[in-house]
Amino acid sequence: MKALAYEKAHPLDAFALELVDVAEPRPRDADLLVGVRAVGINPGETAIRRTRSAEPGGRLILGWEFAGVVEAVGPDATGFAVGDRVMGTGDMARDGAWAERLSVDHRVVARIPDRLSFSDAASLPIGGLTAWEALFRDRDRHGDRDGDRDGDGDRDGLAAGIDRVLIVGGAGGVGTLATQLLKSRTSALVVSTASRPASREWCTRAGADAVVDHTGDVPGQLRDAGVDRVDLVLSTAGTSGNIGWIAEILRPFGHLAAVDLNGPLDLGPLVGKSVSLHTETVFSSFMAGGDVAGQGRILAELAADAVAGRIRPLTTTVLGGLSVDTMRTAHELAESGRTIGKTVIAM
């Protein structure tokens, strides 16, 4: 089969992905074999391309956000049949979805409702899972998936006392879905950050109650908007550089959920307020023995929310065909730092 692969880590200006012939995937007993119809492109994948090389003599196939059709079902894979339309993520220790087919554990896959296109479905898994696990992890750990464990009338899993949330990077995939999940499932006040008119408008359309510019005086802008403190900051970008003002706007015993921590972080500014720090990566379920099956259930809820109109898919750019040119364009957009929503490659 055809796949986009590379051998050595490389920058964008030396783009080295090639469309090559590779062996067909070998499904495990709990796997689905999926014919890929669309893939979502994520900034994290561009970072891996820049920093991770294959073992000597090997090659890497990235891509962990996809939609497609089930072509085969392993003997231990329950709940799916050949021909099902599905979306999901994958396991970073295995080949990804930048290929004609992939094998994937059925527990990180959900069916796609008929009214949801492959391109729109492919825009949801990584951003949706990241936002959900960062925001609602307390509910997931306690198994309360139906509603109001804290008695406040919300269908939420936010810890008690979280009424005001600031999302740093509200126009990106995680930020957009986080805003929509909060507005559809909780009564929280949601403030997003965005620095350009187009991204500010996008955040407002997603449901943000207010939008502030993260390149300016965020505490001052919040005060001008009548928000003196927030209970939770969900930071999707620039966390290390923003830690000073994040600490300033958080209430004592507040929460910081960060999805971009991959280097040194000075926690000193947070200590005086006894802030709780939550890190998030959707791949911890595989890497650290988490609730793998829980991710499939979350994906099913995201799909149902999209069809019901409670959230809208993120697709803003669709590129046609899996090729070196389309992937290079997708990576250029992802690395520009100015994308809104999600770039999807449709096979």
Automatic annotation (TrEMBL):
A Pfam family that the UniProt record links to this protein: ADH_zinc_N_2
Cross-referenced InterPro entries: ADH-like_N, ER, GroES-like_sf, Lipid_raft_assoc_Zn_ADH, NAD(P)-bd_dom_sf
SUPFAM superfamilies named among the record's database cross-references: GroES-like (SSF50129), NAD(P)-binding Rossmann-fold domains (SSF51735)
Domain (Enoyl reductase (ER)): residue spans on this chain: 10-345
Molecular function via GO: oxidoreductase activity
Name of the protein described by the UniProt record: Zinc-binding dehydrogenase
